[in-house]
Amino acid sequence: MTIETLVWLLPIIFIVHDFEEIILIKSWKEKNQDIFSAPAGFKPYEHFRSPDSFSVAVLEELILLIAISFFTVLTQNYLVWIGAFFAVTFHFIPHFIFCFRIKRFVPGAFTALLAMPFSIWILLEIIGSTHYSAVQLTLAFVLGVILFMLNLKMIQSLMQK
Q: What is the pTM of this model?
């Protein structure tokens, strides 16, 4: 598999994972009302209002990841891509935590479980094909996660409107 092919797997893995969430969250919330009617406690997907608003948020993230992948293939500069791919891969972890905290399945957990090992392999392949220092990679990881979280906060606030 070429490095360019691996680069384009970023938006593909992201959208397959988010399709699971788009398709399942509404019915999952309806079936798990006990979580949301409790006065306190952990409430996954509390920010979710409708499939429409969630889909718009996913579209924004998808366009961003396509732009990053396009930039990477065009420039052969993989640092931004590595940061973004790490953030998407890191994003799978909360789905597992959600499952353990509420002791039941949550939307996104299935594709996160399938994508996690494959995503780690892709990251290792790309990192092994480049010559970035440990400092550069660490910075890419940290900045990727920070920017991903800031973007997530922004789109969650927009979903409320």
A: 0.89
Domain residues for the domain of 103 are 3-159
Task: Map tokens 């991903």 to a residue.
Answer: 148
3-state secondary structure of 125: helix
Q: What are phi and psi of 142, to 5 degrees?
A: -65, -50
* pLDDT tens, residue by residue, 7-51: 999 999 999 999 999 999 888 888 888 877 666 666 666 667 777
Give the DSSP per-residue string, 97-152: HHHHHHTS--TTHHHHHHHHHHHHHHHHHHHHHS---HHHHHHHHHHHHHHHHHHH
H or E element in which residue 93 lies: helix 92-102
